[in-house]
Amino acid sequence: MSKQSFIKGTLILLGAGIITRILGFIPRIALPRVIGAEGVGLYQLGWPFLVLILTLISGGVPLAVAKLIAQAEAEGNDKRASAILRISLTFSIILSVTLTSLSYVFAPWITKHLLTDPRVFYTFMCMGPVIITASISAVYRGYFQGKHNMIPTAVSQIAETSIRIVMILLFAFLMLPYGIHLAAAGAMVGVMIGEIGGVAVLYFHYRHGIKIKNRAAAVLEPIPAPPIGRLGIFKQIISISIPVTGSKLVGAFSYLIESILIARCLALAGIATALATAQYGALQGMVIPILLLPTALTYSLSTVLIPSLSEAAAHKDAALIHSRMNHSLRLALVSGAPFAVIMFVLAGPLCQLMYNNAEIGIMLKMMAPVALFIYLQAPLQAALQVLDRPGTALINTLISATIKLTLIYILVKQPEIGIKGAIIAFNANTILVTLLHLWAVQRTLQFTVNGYDLLKVCIAMTVTGFVCNFVMQVHWTSSETLRFLTASMTAFLTYLFMIIALKLINRTDLTRILKLGRKIVKT
Predict the structure, then answer these.
(1) What angle in degrees, to the nearest 10, is found between the helix axes of 128-146 and 47-58?
(2) Do the Cβ atoms of 150 and 6 come closer than 8 Å?
(3) Residue partners of 513: CB distance under 8 A and separation at least 6
(4) How far apart are CA 317 and CA 322, in angstroms?
C-alpha cells in the first residue's frame, strides 16, 4: 500500500471520527430535555457494564483480525482471510451470547445491589442485543482495516450515529408516558437499532466486495493456497487480542467501579435514590460530554502527530522530534483554551441553553479549569504510542485511577460534599494522569515544555475571560440567550486577536490546519 493511500485512509477515518463525535453530541443535548437528568441517570448507570462486556468481547479482536487479514492479503491467500473472518465472527458471537445470557441472569441482583436503583433493570435488559451486534461490528471493522479499506468503517460509523440519534430520541419520547424508567430503556433500544444499522452497512460492503472478487476469480486462474489450520488461526487471534484487551480492561473496569462507588456513596450520604440518579446523570450524561466536545479537534491533531513523530523517530532526529512535540502540545493548548474559558465563565447560561438546566452549571464551572489537561492527553498518549511505551501509559492510568476511586469513596459519602466529591476526584485524576504522561514523554525524549508558550496561553485566556464576563454581565438586552451568544462570539474573537498578538499561532500553523481540512474534505 502506498504512503499516499495510507494517509488517505487515515484522513477518511479522521473525518468520519470528527463527524460522528459532533453528531453524537446531538442526542446528549436533546435527551435530557426529553427524559430529564433523572432519566439520563438511569440511561447512564447501565453504560459501564456495557463498556466492560464489550471490552471483554472485542477489546483486542479488531486489531488481531486486521493484522492477520493484512498478512493473508500480503500472501495473496483469500481462503485464509475468509477463514480468519469466520473464526473471529464465531468466537465473538459465542462469547457475546454467553456474556449476554449471564448479564440477563444476574441483572436483578446487579441493578438492585450494585447500582442501588432497581429502575435501571429495564435499561440493563435492553443492552443484550447491543452487545451481540457491537461484537459483530468490531470484527467486520477489523476485517476492512486489514484490507486497507477504510471507507466501509467510516460510512458505517456515520450511518450508525445518524440512525442512533433519531431512534434514541424517538423511542425515549414514545416510552415516556409509561414511566421515566421505560423512557431510559427506550433510549437504549435506539442505541441497539443504530448498531444494527452500522452492521448492515458493513455487511453490505462485505458482500459487495465478495461479488467483485468472484467475478475477478472467474477470469483468473486460481492460485493454490496452503492448508488452513483453524485451530492455529484461533490461537493467533487470542494471542494478539489478550494483551490489548487487558490494557483496555483497566479503563473499563475503573469506569464500572467508579459508577458503582458514586451510586453507593451518594446513598451513604443520605441522598434519596431518585436524586442520586439525577445527579449521576447530570455529571456523566450532561456535564462531562460538554467538557469532552473539543477533544474532537485534539484527537485529530494527535492522529496527524503519530506519523510525523514516527518519521522523525525513524531518522533519529532529536531536534525535529522535540520541535514537533512542542508544536503539537502548543496547538492542543491553543485550540482548547477558548472552550475552557467559555465553559468556566458562561457555565450556567451554557447549561441552560443546552439542557434547560442552569443548576448543573456549577458542576461544569468546577471541571472547566482542568479541561486543558484533558486536551493535552491526546498528543501525549500519541507520543507514548510512537515511542513504544504503552506499558508506561497503562501504569500511569492505573495509578491515577486508584487515586480517583479512593477520593470518590472518601469524599462522595460525606453529606456536605456529595456529588462534588466525584468532580474533585475526576479533576485530580485528569491532572495526575496528564502530568505522569508528560513526565514519561519528557524523560524518554529528553525535551522540555516551552514554558513561555504556557504563560502566553494563560494571558490570552485571562483577557478573554474578562471580556467574555463583561459582555455577559452588562444587561444591554433582556434576552440571556442573545447575551450568551454575543459573549461567546466576542470571546472567540478576543482570543483569536490575543493568540495572534502574542504570536502563539503563525502562518505555518494556519497552513497546516487548512491543508488538513482540505484533505479531509477531498477524501
Answers:
(1) 40
(2) no
(3) none
(4) 9
Torsion of CA 231, 232, 234, 238, to 10 degrees: 130
**Rounded-to-integer distance, Cα 278 and Cα 317, Å:** 53
Q: How far is residue 331's CA from residue 353's CA, in Å, rounded to a whole number?
A: 29
Q: Which residues of 100-125 are buried (b: 16+ CB within 10 A; e: fewer)?
A: beebeeebeebbeebbbbebbbbbbb
**Please, are residues 256 and 330 in contact by the beta-carbon 8 Å criterion?**
no
Q: How many CB atoms within 10 Å of residue 40?
A: 28
Distance from chain centroid for Cα 325: 23
H helices of 179-284, in order, are: 180-219, 230-268, 273-282
Helices 451-473 & 480-501 angle (0-180, nearest 10): 150
Which three three-digit cell numbers place residue 478?
433582556
Distance CA 223, CA 213 (A): 14
Q: How many Cα atoms sit within 13 Å of 317 on the Cβ side?
A: 13
Best CA proximity match to 154, nearest among 50, 23, 28: 23
pLDDT in tens, the chain (523 residues): 433 344 555 566 566 667 777 777 788 888 888 898 889 888 888 888 888 898 888 877 887 888 888 888 777 777 888 888 999 999 999 999 999 999 999 999 888 888 778 889 999 999 889 999 999 999 998 888 788 777 888 888 889 989 999 999 999 999 999 999 999 999 999 999 999 999 999 999 888 877 666 655 544 444 454 555 678 888 888 887 887 777 678 888 888 898 889 888 988 888 888 888 888 888 888 898 888 888 766 666 665 565 566 666 666 777 777 777 777 788 788 888 999 999 999 999 999 988 888 889 999 999 999 999 998 887 887 777 667 776 787 888 889 989 999 999 999 999 999 899 999 999 999 999 999 989 988 888 777 777 788 899 999 999 999 999 999 998 888 888 899 999 999 999 999 999 888 888 766 655 555 555 554 445 4
Q: Which three cell numbers stand for residue 272?
A: 434519596
What pTM does this model have? 0.78
Three-state secondary structure string covering 139-175:
HHHHHHHHCCCCHHHHHHHHHHHHHHHHHHHHHHHHH
Rg (CA), the chain: 24
CB 121 within 8 A of CB 184: no
Residues in the chain: 523
Contact 281, 44 (CB under 8 A): yes
Report the candidate in 466, 404, 113, 97 with the shortest Cα–Cα distance to residue 253: 404
